[in-house]
Write a structure and sequence with these properties.
2 copies of one chain form a homodimer. By secondary structure, chain A is of the alpha/beta class. Chain A is about 40% helix and about 10% strand. Chain A has a domain at about 105-350: Type I PLP-dependent aspartate aminotransferase-like (Major domain) (Aspartate Aminotransferase, domain 2), CATH 3.40.640.10. In chain A, about 60% of the residues are buried.
């Protein structure tokens, strides 16, 4: 049988293998030096990008080059053309959203992951990738005190982990709604929409926690309840034990979104936050949020892997048969292509160890409390929500517009970056600590900038 | 307002910042050296892992360390404990599935991505990340000859890109089915299941292409049709122009899955494969399959971004308002967290340039055709499907079991790795060329191993 006719005019070109590893050694040293320099000088860069829409793209060639260019050109353009358009999430005074760190062991592990370039879709396509994923998730499970016997795997983000949970729940109760608090992350509503379920937002108490009485009134026939341990606005913790009671009575799937705060449970004194999570059907914790692992790495555990398997398994002809005694991770989530993310999580857990992680988390909480104490001591300012972890919600005494202008002014200094939310209809500022290089002086500088901006 | 009561016993621990960048310089040099050595010696390693289930995990500590360890320990264990369990996807004689390469510029770009660790969720959270994503997708669009004016963004895998397309299609026609050929990737059925649509597999012609007459008979009221350009088993190309006619008449969404073969269109002589794709509502091409970009990087274009926006947009309180004149990429797909994947695609496109990519693709096609010519010239073997690109489906004259045993024997040598599929009920071997270091001698060795295994 001959090749397809449309290619009869194909003229083979003699290939010169572009496989000069010596060039990679040079380029790799330059890239490592770039990263090291970046980590040292990022503190001096403006945290927030100061560019107008289209400005960065306007500096770049509109079409790809015909001939290859040296990798050094990428590094040069990264410095000269791209960095002005980067908001530096890895900056010690990045206090927005959930501040996070791509730590050095995680950064280097990404290099290794890309070099190996394996696909952990099924066990046989790289046994070590599947087994290390199981092991790393079990290590993390132990670190945060979840019970034994859970099935764990890695998704890219909590958005996907929640999609996985809700797809499994929907298949068990196709018509049921998804119930969550009005403080839940919007990925819950997005996931429900994707799998075709109605999502209902339930009211919270004065400390922004899902009200069990409101849930009890609505839970009949629900497919799933998503409880949050560390909500995105205030890091409030829903009363998971009471929610678990209700879910057990009604048969609804309980998914616990501990994407941010789950990492805190590495410290004994924060284990309370995961109370009841042992009764969840699924639980997600993002090591890329507060466990020093570069984007993306979202840990999903379930005690009902059979339900995930039913929602996602498929065995096409071109995939090897399942070896006996193993699981194929493609059967537990939407994607067939699965990066070797376990390697970076494992590298980070080893590099810091339990104590190192505890030290960092405790320091971040200490800094957040210190900041809150300054805010509380100033009559022109108020803390507007409890701050159980490393995020403080607060505001200046003025109107919403004044707070909004104040935030803009602080961020425009380039010295610190904070984000905002709305609570009870009011515009609220948020300071989130999470970078491994953030010091007390950094937090103090943020407070100084805020007061200066208020005074202006 | 005070911190949550459960933490009253919290004792702050003085934090010693783990921010020794000099250590990173050392570790980084070691990691680059490891990767360089790996790329040089991977050719000598057994392609397929030779381990039993649980064997790798059994060599690793069951619990995480209490105290941190040096990064050098990760490299040592990677060599000694993990590599025996790795099937080397980056090996020049990895001919399974779709062979692929994590090329050097892409590998180094992953290091940079992890160091910057930005989240490209909205434009303001890192303008350069959004704008480079738009630019890199436009460069790739130009390289493969798609029309101007498409909205492009990056998803992790084609599985997710197809989910995005089908969610948009479902919202336009909630009750309609998804139609695709029986040769489509199983991610289509998985995506349909996830978004709650029925998926119907339609028959193919003798060259494994979707039959337009079968589609015409079923298309009434369908929500979407997924046409494949380069099916997973044989790389057959569905007749997209005829399919587009039918979709336009019926109003069904046309999604073109060109995950593998779309990259071939970088060469003029393979542009035929994308004929009609300019009329698709959405089209996906995976640079991580045949464009030398490390996992994961899946390019999705659409001419109906409004439909994606309706399916995925959401504006929670804690995300900055959309700046005027920009788009926020979180509104076009399921995940809020979005890695700076554009940087690696951009680095690869620049490093190779149009001509470098053409050379590699042409060489891979030449090698596949050469292999096919050897198979065709041997009366004991047959090529069982057209081979328009770099994948050859073939079999030995014996029964299915004999072919299966033969494949096992070849893979067990460790010298080459091939995978299989089934066509017309028969077990079929597949040789896929895609690694940038694969030479004619590598393909010749695979053929030698196959004949030796058949003779055994």
């Amino acid at each position: 049988m001959s090749a397809d006719r449309p290619n009869e005019d194909f003229v083979p070109v003699k290939h010169k293998p572009d496989s000069d590893v010596d060039q990679f050694r040079q380029d790799g040293e330059a890239a490592v030096a770039w990263v090291a320099d970046y980590l040292e000088r990022v503190r001096e860069l403006p945290v927030q990008a100061r560019v107008k829409p289209g400005e960065i793209r306007g500096t770049l060639p509109p079409s790809p080059p015909d001939r290859g260019e040296p990798f050094a050109a990428v590094l040069t353009d990264l410095d000269e053309l791209l960095l002005p358009g980067i908001t530096h999430w890895n900056h010690p005074r990045f206090f927005g959203y959930f501040a996070n760190s791509g730590s050095e062991p995680g950064i280097l592990a990404e290099l290794l992951i890309a070099a190996l370039n394996v696909n952990a879709m099924v066990w046989t396509t790289s046994p070590a990738a599947t087994e290390l994923e199981e092991l790393a998730l079990d290590w993390l499970r132990q670190l945060i005190g979840l019970p034994e016997g859970l099935h764990g795997h890695i998704e890219d983000t909590a958005s996907t982990a929640t999609i996985v949970a809700l797809a499994a729940a929907r298949d068990l109760r196709p018509g049921g709604a998804v119930l969550t608090s009005e403080q839940a992350n919007f990925s819950v509503a997005k996931a429900a929409r994707l799998v075709g379920l109605e999502c209902r937002s339930l009211p919270v108490d004065s400390e922004f926690r899902l009200r069990p009485d409101a849930l009890a009134a609505e839970i009949e026939g629900a497919a799933a309840v998503v409880a949050t341990v560390g909500t995105t606005s205030t890091t409030s913790v829903d009363p998971v034990p009471e929610i678990a009671d209700l879910c057990e009575q009604s048969g609804a799937w309980l998914h616990v979104d501990a994407a941010y705060a789950g990492s805190a449970a590495v410290c004994e004194e924060f284990r309370w936050a995961l109370a009841g999570a042992d009764r969840a059907d699924s639980i997600v914790v993002n090591p890329h949020k507060w466990l020093f692992t570069p984007f993306d790495c979202s840990a999903l555990w379930t005690r009902r892997p059979d339900a995930l398997f039913r929602a996602f398994s498929a065995d096409p002809e071109y995939i090897p048969e399942r070896a006996s005694g193993v699981i194929d991770l493609k059967d537990y989530g939407p994607a067939l292509g699965r990066r070797f993310r376990a390697l970076k999580l494992w590298a980070v857990l080893r590099a810091y160890g339990r104590e190192g992680l505890q030290d960092l988390i405790r320091e971040h909480v200490r800094l957040a409390r210190l900041f809150a104490s300054w805010v509380e001591a100033d009559p022109d300012w108020e803390v507007v929500a409890p701050y159980p972890f490393s995020v403080v919600c607060f505001r200046w005494q003025g109107e919403d517009e004044a707070n909004e202008a104040l935030l803009r002014r602080v961020n425009e200094t380039g010295e610190a970056f904070l984000s905002h939310t709305r609570l009870n209809g009011r515009y609220v500022l948020r300071l989130a600590v999470g970078n491994l290089r953030t010091t007390e002086a950094d937090v103090a500088r943020a407070w100084e900038l805020l007061r200066e901006a208020a005074a202006a």
